[in-house]
Amino acid sequence: MPMTRHFSPHPDDSDSPVTLVRACNRFSVRYFKNCFNPTENVLCSPVVVRLGLAMFYQVSGTPIEEDLRTVLHLPSDKSTSNTQQVQLHDDLTSSGALKIHTMICTSETRPLDACFQDLLANHAPAVVLEPVDFTDDVSTARAVNGWIQSERCEIDDLVTEGDVWSLETLSVMMFNAVSLMTKWRLGFDPRLTEQKEFKFLNKVQKVSMMHGIFKARYCYDLQMRCKVVELPFEHSSNYNLLIILPDDGQCLADVVDAIPEEYLNTMIDCLTEHWVDVQIPRITVAMKTSVEDVLSKQDCTGIFELKDLKVFADGKDQLDRFYQHCWFRMDENGAQLNAPLPESPQVTFTADRPFLYVVRRANDSAVVMIGDYSIYVDPDEQY
Fold it and tell me: What are 287-318's pLDDT values in tens digits?
């Protein structure tokens, strides 16, 4: 059945959980649209970017306050904002499936402002503070990568020496790593996985296509000309995966460009249960993005340009750089094996061409990751 979307205003100045989720989801759509690049597979976590930038909202002057409040949909009261972000982080990570690691590097020659130190000590997500010598790009990169490797997550290297090198002296850099580790609620039978052709934007290539018949929530979006299916991860994770598959012949870039900001807020009302014959590729995606580059397309670069953050005791400064690295895997593993079913599928969902995918929290549809799978990358070259 084609979906019908209903848009209704939700004021951002409310501190209700529903309003917060809707604001985060609108930011997530807009952020991904500006992050999208048709020459690579994009993966980002806009909500975690928002958590990081909201921390600096607490120590910003008026120009940056207004910038962040408008773009991130933050409440005008900073105390309310901080309480919201702490609760949001706790909700996102409570199941243990989503991992968020955050580090801030500061110039080792400048003492930190006492209020900023208190903020970091009580912030969620927990922030690792590392004073570094920014004139030595090799040792700075080694400190960042050594820290993330010690966390034993799926990401080994957050940065290269080039990411922390600059003709000008740097003062503050932020890094975060985001990964989702969970299984499907009902797994795919590995015996049904076959090598099949996938129509990547850069070539047609055989990939491992998983296959199963599931009772899943599904709809066809007539306006966007896309099939949409929701596949749940194991119940304890409280997450599911939304896959948005444009019609064959549809340009993925056009679909991304046309997605309304409210799309992920209204999608929940359009999905209904069907028996769905699902074929999707087994994928692993890891990607690093420069948050400054993405926000520059949203006219939100004040935090990177204006010396208006009270981070150091000897004066205000700006956030020089912010890098995010995300990791996501989609394979056959499930908490339970999907047993053969006698029912005939009502619809087919064969993702053999570029598609979008969205990781959402099951209980309130809060978006934590958005990505696309559209470019073939040799497995030996993607890390």
Answer: 999 999 999 998 888 999 999 999 999 999 99
The label of the residue with tokens 């408008």 reads: 70
315-317/127-132 β-pairing: unpaired
Token output for 21:
């989720």
Helix (H, G, I), strand (E, B) or coil at 312: strand
CB 278 within 8 A of CB 230: no
Q: What is the CA radius of gyration of the chain?
A: 21
Q: What is the mean pLDDT of residues 238-255?
A: 95
CA distance 52 to 61: 17
Mean pLDDT of 269-288: 93
Between CA 211 and CA 338 the distance in angstroms is: 10
Do 287 and 319 form a contact (C-beta atoms < 8 A)?
no
| The one-letter amino acid at 78 | K
For the chain, how far is it from start to end, CA to CA, in angstroms?
Answer: 40
- Chain length of the chain: 383
Q: Which residue has the higher pLDDT, 246 or 127?
A: 246
16 — phi, psi (to 5°)? -70, 150
Per-residue pLDDT tens digits for 7-31:
344 444 445 788 889 989 999 999 9
